[in-house]
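Listing S7. Sequence submitted for prediction.
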Amino acid sequence: MPVTQIIDNLYLGSEVDAAKATVRGDYDLVIDVRPLVDMNNVSMKNLDFLAKQINTALRGRKKVLVHCALGQERAPLVIAWYLANYTGFNTIQKAYDQIKKVRPMIYVRVDVLDLSVLAERNLY
């Protein structure tokens, strides 16, 4: 599946998409989430860091591509975290629903999140 626009200036893709986009210079910021997101041990600190990077870039009207290997699990998680924390999608599920509308092949992985953090931030 090609790169998918999630909201204005925020895109989701795979490592192949990112390689092509980098060569062409299609995006102002390309974020590879693989080094910071381990689906066996998801760090809320890392999710917050990545969401803040996305937010800073988007506030500066930058075009952002977030990717992992296939664009199906880790990158959607990061984008859902960003949407839930910085936009009107005020729960993680609503954020995932938005992503799934435009990129149906993603895996919804709420199970890897610390539910106490979700509850504390009213994101669940």
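Caption to Listing S7: primary sequence and predicted structure tokens for the chain studied. The chain has a mean pLDDT of 91. The beta strands are 4-7, 10-13, 29-32, 64-67.
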